[in-house]
Structure formats: C-alpha cells, structure tokens
Amino acid sequence: MVIQFMVSLMATLSFAVLFNAPKPELFFCGLTGAIGWIVYLICLNFNDSITIANLTATLALTVISRMIASLRKNPVTLYLISGIFPLVPGAGIYYTSYYFIMNEMGEFSKYGMQTVKVAGAIVLGIIFGFALPQGWFNALGKRRREF
Amino acid sequence: MAETKEILSLAVETGDALLRNGAEVYRVEDTVMHILEAYEIEEYDVYVLSNGIFASANENKEDACSMIRHIPLGSTHLGRIAALNQLSREICSHECSLMEAWERLDECCAIPTTKKNSARFFCGMGCACFGYLFGGTLFDAVTAFFTGLLLQILLQRMSTGRVSKFIINILGSAFVTFLSLLLYSLKLPILYDKVIIGSIMPLVPGIALTTSIRDFFNGDYLSGAIHMIDAILTAFCIAVGVGTVMTVYYFLMGGSLF
C-alpha cells in the first residue's frame, strides 16, 4: 500500500510537471492523485465494482483538491487535473480496442461498457464533489473569493 | 472616460490568456467580470466559449466598446493559470493600478514551459509509474520509462509542425504500441499490455474530460460539449493507433503469440 501510494504520487507529480504546474505546488498535485488512487484501491478491496470505486475515488479527489486549493489559495483546476490521471480509464481504452481487434466481441463489449461506466462515474464524482457548498472550504483558507 | 477601452482590453486579454492555457469557461467569465467591476465599469456583458470571448462595456454611453477574441484549443499551462488567478485577485482588491496590471499580465504570459529535457524525463517517469500501478512488474516500468521518453520526443517533434491533433494521437499511440511489441518479440520478459497502457497515459484525454464536466456543471453546455467531443475523439484516436499496430503484428506473427 505504501509503495502504491509513493508510486501514484510520483506518477501524478510527473504529469503535473508536463502540464507546467508551478514548482511549489507539485507535491500537492501529487498528493491529490495519490489519495485518489489509494481510495480507489481501498474501495476495490471491499467491493468488486470498479464503477463504485471510481465514483468514490473521484469524489474524494475532488474534495481533497478543493481543500488544498483553499489552503494554498490556488485554482482547484491545478490539483484536480493532475489528480484525475490515475483514475482516467486509459487501460479501458486499451483493452477495448485490443479485444475489438482480436474479434472477441464478448470481452470487447464488457470492456467497452466498463470504460463508459468509469467515465460516467468520474463525471458523477466530480459533480458531487463540486455540489458541496463553497462555505465549508472557505473556512479552511479564510479567503474572500474562491472558485 | 477614455479608459473604458483600456480596461476592457485588459480584462479580455486576461481572459484570453486564461482560456489559452486551459482554464474552464466559468473561471474565465468570472475573472473578466471581476476585473471590469474592479475598475468600476457598471454596464457590461461577457460571453465566453471554450474557443472564444465576446465582451462589451458601457453600451449605452458615449465610449461604448466591444471586443471579440478567437482562441484555439491549446495546451495546458497550470502555472500560468495560477499566476493569472493571483493577478485577478489583486486587481479585485484594488492593489494593482491599470499600468501595473498590464505589466503583470505580460509577466504571467511569459512564465516558461517546462524545459524539453525535463519534460522528456518526467513523461517517462509518469509512464513508468502508471505502468507499475496498472499491474506491471518493475521491468515493465523501466521499459515504459523509455517508451514514454521516446513518445515525448516524438510529440515535441510533431508539435513544432502544423500536424493535426488526430494524427498526433494516432501516431503517438501507434508508436508506443510498436515499440513495446518490438521489445516483446525480441523476447524481453515484459507484459507488453502493461507497457502500452503506461505509455499511452500522456495521450489519454484526462484534462479534456475534467474541463468538460466542470463546464457542464456550471451550465456552459456548449463549451462542455466541445471539450467532451475532444475527449471522445482523442480516446477514439488512441484506440485506432493501438489497434492498427496490433492488427499488423497479428498478421505478421500469424496469431501465434496471442
């Protein structure tokens, strides 16, 4: 688990560098991604459903991003965009096209549907995360205006 | 009152810079409005799309003024977004005169992008980590590091020319698939699917998806749809790139390896 945490932190951090995130924020960008990934793994432990795990992880990720954004007085986008990468269904895209090429239609539709579901779960997770009132987060940073 | 034009162009330029570097529509709209308000313009209208800004100020007065900007979908620069956000906050708390604001805006837009070499290194690093996270072994991660590094070099080469985004995504994913299958057929002990999954991560449309959702959430359906289509097409292109190389390999090897 610790290794998974470190690796996902490193992975998110590297991608944050690619998107030119400011240097002092790099660690926090990595942290959001790592927390999202760990929540995802924990959920998978309790429940087989990848969709629910993704939903929970994205929700946690969004909330954490907003908290850090309030604390660090930076746009939420900064942390959210970097943190979302471990959850985006890259593997889903790969397996879907792989089984399509291999003409295994059963597997193809299974992975295709799963990719769509995961994308949907991410959508819902972010939406729920943003539906929480801004006031809760403002208290953290004591700032006037926040997005 | 001759200042209206000056103020509006400052606001629109700031919005332009934000949008160009990948901020979501709501933030751009909000920033432009706040800047206009901070400089005491009372009548204004701002309409922002994911690739354009329309703004007008003081329409019923003598110095009426309106502006339109077209902004192509570009690459993401989070550092600039953060800096511009800070600038707009300072303008709103009246810490910044108009002249200073212009200077600061130029500074924000001049924040450099990551150096080519370190971008290559970190791209490889990211690919390696994702390869490992999605179930690869340590050796897969090392392989993904090199394929990711080469992918980034390829992307940098192509981004200087006017190559379509579709072609970049198709070629990029085809390239990493080719590399990992090549290494696999050289009898290196790798799980080629993990290497491929790790290495296509830089191409996967995570940003477009996130931005799209946030646009939808704020009611900007049109911009949300633009980003969503972008995300779906990118995913499709990746699938095509991976699929094409897989098919060719399958034919060459007579299917024995699958």
Report on the structure:
The complex is a heterodimer of chains A (147) and B (258). Chain A is mainly alpha-helical and 147 residues long. The longest helix of chain A has 27 residues, at 105-131. Chain A is 79% helix and 0% strand. Chain A has one domain (2-87, 122-141). In chain A, α2 crosses α4 (76-83). By secondary structure, chain B is mainly α. Chain B folds into 2 domains: 3-109, no CATH class; 116-253, no CATH class. In chain B, β1 (44-49) and β2 (52-57) form a beta hairpin. Chain B starts with a helix and ends in a 5-residue tail after the last helix. At the A-B interface, α1, α4, α5 and α6 of A face α2, α3, α5, α8 and α9 of B.
Order of helical and strand elements of chain A:
HHHHHHH
Structural class of chain B: mainly alpha
Major beta sheet summary of chain B: 3 strands, antiparallel
Mean pLDDT of chain B: 86
The gross shape of chain B turns out to be elongated
**Helices and strands of chain B, in N-to-C order?**
HHEEEHHHHHHHH
What class do helices, strands and sheet pairing of chain A give?
A: mainly alpha
- The average pLDDT of chain A is 85
**Number of DSSP E strands of chain B:** 3
Helix percent of chain A reads over 70%
Query: Given the structure, what is the number of helices of chain A?
Result: 7
Q: Assign a percent range to the helix content of chain B.
A: 55-70%
Question: Taking strands numbered 1, 2, ... along the chain, how are they ordered across the largest sheet of chain B?
Answer: 1-2-3
Unreliable stretches of chain B, pLDDT < 50, 5 or more residues? Answer: none
Shape of chain A from CA axes? globular
Uncertain runs of chain A are: 143-147
Work out the radius of gyration of chain B: 23 Å
